[in-house]
């Protein structure tokens, strides 16, 4: 992909790893881009569940046996969250139509405890995926990522982690349908 064909990136875009990517942190991953600016880029892997539950990680949420995802290889001692619907928390950042990132944590805990907030609307992540200034554009130029715009509402939390990567490529159509069916290890074909 030449640099003039790289789409403008913005919060809410999905980065789909190309099927030949060998980096185990990002194999068959779908990354939700939460921030992209001159200082770098920040995203969360949507389809990599961890072995941990939220109740094991956060004492104030010990009542919530909810799955936690690996957001990426950077700072895996930090907790991040996204949610769907209307803005429910102060200081949440809009990352697309009806999708929010972060927000007031005390308000989150209180709302989940009281039942005012539905845990099904939230997805939690340990760590994040980060890129230095211009690093993500360089990776796009090297065909490491496929950018999917305007798919956030339709795909984000609808599919299981195992099917998300493939379903997005299939829905993108054209040559992407071929990539969706590419075997994980072509030598075993």
From TrEMBL:
InterPro entries: AlgH-like
SUPFAM superfamilies (UniProt xref): VC0467-like
Pfam families in the record: DUF179 (PF02622)
Highest taxon listed in the record's lineage: Bacteria
Protein name in the entry: Putative transcriptional regulator
């Amino acid at each position: 992909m030449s640099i003039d064909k790289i789409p403008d990136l913005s919060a809410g875009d999905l980065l789909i790893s190309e099927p030949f990517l060998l980096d185990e942190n990002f194999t068959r991953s779908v990354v939700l881009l939460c921030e992209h600016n001159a200082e770098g880029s920040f995203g969360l892997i949507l389809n990599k569940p961890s072995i941990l539950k939220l109740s094991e990680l956060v004492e104030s949420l010990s009542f919530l046996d909810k799955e936690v995802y690996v957001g990426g290889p950077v700072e895996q001692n930090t907790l991040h969250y996204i949610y769907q619907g209307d803005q429910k928390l102060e200081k949440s950042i809009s990352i697309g139509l009806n999708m929010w990132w972060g927000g007031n944590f005390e308000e989150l805990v209180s709302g989940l405890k009281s039942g005012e907030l539905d845990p099904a609307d939230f997805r939690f992540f340990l760590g994040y995926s980060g890129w230095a200034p211009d690093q993500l554009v360089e990776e796009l130029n090297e065909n490491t990522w496929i950018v999917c715009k305007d798919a956030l509402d339709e795909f984000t939390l609808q599919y299981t982690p195992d099917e998300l990567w493939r379903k997005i490529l299939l829905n993108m159509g054209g040559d992407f349908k071929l990539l969706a069916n590419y075997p994980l290890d072509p030598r075993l074909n």
